[in-house]
Design goal:
Length: 443
């Protein structure tokens, strides 16, 4: 395979490139004195090639790769836009996650910047985005004029924000009008996922009994079938707002879990329970789901978090499998709710003994089948997802939910792989090939 030349694109404050500086390993030996570059697939410029560490006053240096075109020029890129929402004087979203991804891209010769709906300039070959500039006093994002992106990575932070007019127009303009590869088109709907998985004979048995929660006429009859039932908000995240209803000798217990606290409410009978649920659940949209007898580690239930991503060949792969153990008072295993991260091998060996390798293999294979089935149910391109699964002591697997915009995995090895696989998928979508080695620091 031919590996493209990589280097630094010196860009002035106006957004106009002024020079290309090859990384030291490439030198100038195979490049002409002047380069005719296509940026973002739409802007054409002609700039000089300078030796490594050549001086370009007041310039910002962006890592790029060069691909030879049929017209005796080069395509420079890829330029990757993290699409998020306007706000907080600049943009909203998890800046630490953005910085981690930008830094990984820089090491791999890929320019990643932050873009908001307010930075899109319809009809122009450029956008107004934000580039990361590390300083001794702390990280900083500065406004910059940049080429239209080669790939758009949707990280609009909330369901509410994603449904706003500006965000919807941005998604449509970039993905539909300009036909820029855009992935993760939107958040998943819990109820729709359950329904679609049930259409698969091999996956239907993984889905616990589930239904829509009717606030006007709560389906209390389900408590005759299942001793424990969970109410999950359709717009929920990380277990926030989850409710557990459990039968006990005194009647019922309802637990409301929020980021601030866990509130417990007793109910002596069905009438009291009905009144209580109308107060606790209100009119929020929920799905109900049967409680599953999860396997335990050191006396506490645990479940599985699987991160799946597409990589350099555009195919699904398992990036990592994590274990989350419930906290002492929590009704879910989410870390923000008091859950803890445990070593995968330690937990599975303790529970399944010599069978743990086979169990691990089944978890991975099942997660991949779920991801492919979910992808078939969604419009647009999906490049990553996390899947929450449960497992019983006997080894039976359950599907709980999937997230279209995975939160950061705290396991260092999974985190590192996830960032690299994202960059590899960016390269795949943009048409740029992988290079040997790394880009290194700025000149």
């Amino acid at each position: 395979m031919t590996h493209p030349t990589a280097g630094w694109l010196a860009v002035q404050g106006s957004g106009k490139p002024s020079a290309f500086i090859p990384f030291s390993r490439h030198g100038k030996q195979s490049l002409p004195e002047q380069l005719r570059l296509i940026l973002g697939g739409r802007t054409e410029v002609k700039i000089p090639v300078l030796p490594h560490r050549g001086s370009v006053p007041s310039a910002t240096f962006l890592p790029v790769r060069l691909l030879k075109t049929h017209s005796h020029g080069y395509k420079a890129g890829p330029f990757i836009a993290i699409l998020t929402s306007d706000g907080n004087r600049t943009f909203r979203g998890n800046r630490k996650n953005f910085i981690d991804l930008i830094r990984t891209g820089r090491k791999m010769g890929v320019t990643i910047f932050v873009l908001t709906p307010g930075g899109i300039q319809p009809g122009k070959p450029t956008v107004r985005g934000y580039i990361h500039r590390p300083l001794k006093t702390g990280d900083q994002f500065i406004p910059a004029t940049l080429p239209l992106p080669d790939v758009v990575y949707n990280r609009i932070p909330t369901r509410t924000a994603e449904q706003r007019k500006g965000e919807q127009q941005a998604l449509h303009y970039l993905g539909k009008t300009l036909e820029i590869p855009l992935f993760n088109p939107g958040f998943f709907n819990k109820w729709s996922l359950y329904q679609f998985l049930r259409q698969s004979e091999e996956l239907a048995e993984l889905v616990p009994a589930t239904g829509k929660w009717n606030a006007d006429h709560p389906p209390l009859h389900i408590l005759k079938r299942f001793p424990t039932v969970f109410l999950k908000p359709n717009d929920g995240l990380a277990g926030n707002g989850m409710i557990r209803i459990a039968r006990n000798r005194s009647g019922y217990e309802v637990v409301l879990q929020t980021l601030k606290e866990k509130k417990r409410f007793p109910a002596e009978n069905a009438a009291g329970l009905l009144k209580l649920l109308r107060r606790v659940a209100g009119t929020r949209s929920y799905v109900w789901q049967q409680g599953v007898p999860l396997a335990t580690f050191r006396g506490r239930p645990f479940d599985l978090r699987i991160l799946l991503q597409k990589g350099g060949k555009g195919e699904w792969g398992i990036t990592g499998i994590g274990i989350r153990v419930a906290g002492p008072d929590a009704i879910s295993t989410h870390v923000p709710m008091g859950g803890t991260i445990e070593n995968r091998q330690t937990v599975l060996k303790a529970v399944f003994g010599d069978r743990y390798r086979d169990v691990l293999r089944r978890i991975g294979e099942t997660a991949l089948r779920i991801a492919r089935q979910i992808e078939r149910s969604q419009e647009g391109r999906i490049g990553e997802m996390s899947i929450d699964m449960g497992i019983e002591k006997g080894g039976r697997l359950w599907f709980f939910e999937a997230n279209a915009k995975p939160m950061k995995f705290d396991e260092p090895d999974i985190r590192e792989r996830s960032l690299k696989r994202l960059i590899q998928y960016f390269l795949y979508l943009s048409g740029f090939q992988e290079t040997r080695g790394k880009g290194g620091a700025s000149p």
